[in-house]
Amino acid sequence: MRKSDLVFFLTxxxxxxxxxxxxxxxxxxxxxxxxxxxxxxxxFMAGLGxxxxxxSRWARSTRRPVELFALLELFIAAxxxxxxxxxxxxxxxxxxxxxxxxxxxxxxxxxxAMGATFPLMGRIAIPSAAATHGETAAFYGANTxxxxxxxxxxxxxxxxLLGLSGALYAAALLDVVAAGLALAWLxxxxxxxxxxxxxxxxSMWRDPxxxxxxxxxxxxxxIEVLSLRxxxxxxxxxxxxxxxxxxxxxCGIGLGxxxxxxxxxxxxxxxxxxxxxxxxxxxxxxxxxxxLWTLRAQLGENDLFGSLANRVPTGAGLARLWATHxxxxxxxxxxxxxxxGMALPAAAAALxxxxxxxxxxxxxxxxxxxxxxxxxxxxxxxxxxLLPALGPRRSFAIVLLVPALAALLVPGRRLLPWALGLLAxxxxxxxxxxxxxPVRDRxxxxxxxxxxxxxxxxxxxxxxxxxxxxxxxxxxxEASSAPVDVRLQLLLGHIPGVLHGDxxxxxxxxxxxxxxxxxxxxxxxxxxxxxxxxxxxxxxxARAFSDWNNAVLDDPRTRLVFADGRHALASSNARFDLIxxxxxxxxxxxxxxxxxxxxxxxxAEHLAxxxxxxxxxxxxxxxxxDLETVAATWCAAFEHTSAWLSAYDLILVGAESPPRGGxxxxxxxxxxxxxxxxxxxxxxSGVDLQALQVAGDAELRAFASGQQPMRDDDPVLEFxxxxxxxxxxxxxxxxxxxRPEYVSELPETCRPRAVQFRAALGRFLDQLPSGAGxxxxxxxxxxxxxxx
Length: 788
Fold this sequence. Notes:
Number of helices: 26
Shape: elongated
Radius of gyration: 29 Å
Helix content: 55-70%
Strand content: 5-15%
Strand order of the largest sheet: 7-6-5-8-9-11-10-12
C-alpha cells in the first residue's frame, strides 16, 4: 500500500468501530427491537449517502482538500469522544418518537462527515480522468479493507477490553492519528481547484450506470443480511460470529477493489469499464449460488433453509472458533463480495467517460449516494420485508435476481444472449435453493422469520424413544418438551410465585416456548399476566407448545406485547407482584443488556410491595467468573436474594422485602392446580421445592464477593460468555451448586430430599465425560423417578 492508501485504510478502521459501538449503544436507548434497529441503520446509511452526494461541490472547489479531509476526521473524532456524554442525555427523554429523533440527530453529523470524505478521497487521489478507474479502486479498496479490520477490532479487542465508551475514545485517538498522517503524507499536487465546468445535465440523474450502482448496493447489503441470518444459525449468534461475517464480506469487497487497482496499474489494458461493471453484476449472483452450494456441501446438509442447528466446536479454543466462523462465511460470501467490490470503481470510471465535462468529485458523490441509498433499501427490505413475508429461501431467490437484471441495464449490451444466460442462472438458482429431503428422525413443525429472529419448532426422538419438541432460535435450542427442560421452565415461574404467596399481576420478559408464562396461570390469585417479547416470530412457535404452556396466549388474562423487554419495562409506570426473565443465552449478541445492574435495578423498581423477581442462568454454559459477575450484579440490585437449582440451570430470586421460605415453605399446602403442575416434574410439596435451594442471601453474596457488578457501559458477559460456552459443560459451577455443606442450612424436614437431589446431580457430573446427551437423559429420568 502507498502512504495515501494507509491513511484511507485507517479511516476505514475507525469508521467501523464507530458504527459498531454507536449501534450497540443506541439500541439500548431506543430498544433492541426491529424499529429501533431500523432507525439506527437508516440514519447511519442516510448520513453517509447524503454526505457523499452533498459534499461534491466542496470537494471540487476547495483549495485545501487534504486539510478539509483532516478537519472532517478530527470533527468525527471529537464527536465520537463526546458521544457517550451525549447518549447519556437521551435516557430521560419520554416517548419513542422523541428518542428516535434525538438519536438520529446524534448520528447524522458524524455520518454526514464520513460520507463527505468519499468525494474528497477522489479529489486527493485522482490526478486525471484517465486515472479514475485505478485510483478509485485503490482508495475504495483500502478504505473497505480497513473497515473489515475495524469490524473485528470493535468486537474482539476494543469493546471487550475497554468497554463501550473506551472503545469510542480509542477509535477517536486513531482518527486523530489518521488526520495527522493525512496532513503529513497526502499529496498536494492535485490541490488546485479545477476550472468551473457546466452543471451536470438533468439526464444524468436517469443514467443507467447510476441505476446499476443503486441495484448493486441494494443486492449486496440484502445478500449480507440474508447470509448473516443463515450463517448465525450454524455458528451461533455471538458478537464474534456477527463481526467475522461482516469482516469477511467487507474483506471481499476491499480485495475486489484492490484487484481492480492492480489491474489498472499493469501495462496491459484490461476490459472496458462498462464491460467490468456488466460482468460483475452478472457474476455476483452466480458466485453467490456457488457459495451457497459449497456451504451446503461443507455442512453436509441437503437443505440450507431447513432447521439448521448451531455447530460451535466446544473444547477447542478461540482460534478454532474464529477459523470455523471465517471459513463458513468465506465459502458463502467472499466470491460475490469480490465482484461487488470491483463494480463500484468500474462504475465511477464509466461515469467519467460518459460525462467528461462533469467534475469527477460530482460524479463520485452522486455515485456514492446512489450506491449507499441502494444499500439502505436492500438491508431494510431484506430484514423487514422479505424475510418476514417470504422466508430466507424465496428472499434469496428475489435478491439474487436483482443484480442479474441490473446487468441488463448496463449500456451497450446485446440483451438476447444474456437474457438466455439469465434464464440458465435462474435454473441453477432453483436447484441450489430448492427444498431438500427431510432429515431422518427430525420433523420440522414450523419455521417463522422476522427482522431479528429465525425461529423453528421441530420434533426429534430422545434417547428413550419419546418424541421431544424443541424451539430453536437462530439455530440455538432455547426450550423443549424434554422433562428436564419443562422442569426448569415451570420452576422459573413457580418458585417466585410460591415465595410471594399471593401473586395477582406478573410480567414475563421473553416468551420462548411460553411454559414459564403459562406456569404463572397455575397460581390461584393470578388475574393479569403481561409478556414482553421482542420477536413476533416467537408467537407462532409458542403456540406449537400449547400442550405444555397452558395455552397461555389464548388465556384472557394474558397480554402479549411485542417490544424490547428491557426498554419496555424501563418505560413503564406499572408495578408487578412478580417479574421473571427467561431471555436468550447470555453469549448471544446483545443479550448481556438483560444482565446488567441498570436492568436488574429496573426490575427491582417495578416490583410492587412484597414483590418477587426471578432470573434464569444456564450454569453449564458459564464460567465461574461469569456466574460470579451475574450474582454480584443481582445482589447489588436486590436487598434479599437466593439461588435455586432446577437440574443444571440456576434460578436467581430477588426481593426488596424477605419472601416467605424455610419452614413456612416446608409446611405449605400447595394449591391443587399448582400441585398438579409441579407433580409433572417430580415436585410434590413445599419440601421438594425448598430442597432445590442452593444458596441463601449470605451465601450468594459471599460467592460473588470477588466480582464487580456488570454495568451497561462495560457488558463483559457478552464477550466472555461465548468463550465460556466453547469449553463445554462447566462442572465447577455445577459442583458449587451441589456442595453438600449447604444442606445443613436447610430446614431439617427437607434435608433428605436435598441430599437425594444433590446425589443425582453428582452422578450426572460423573457421567458427563461419557457424553453430555446421555448423561442429561439419565439425570432427567432419575429426577422424574424421585418418589414422594
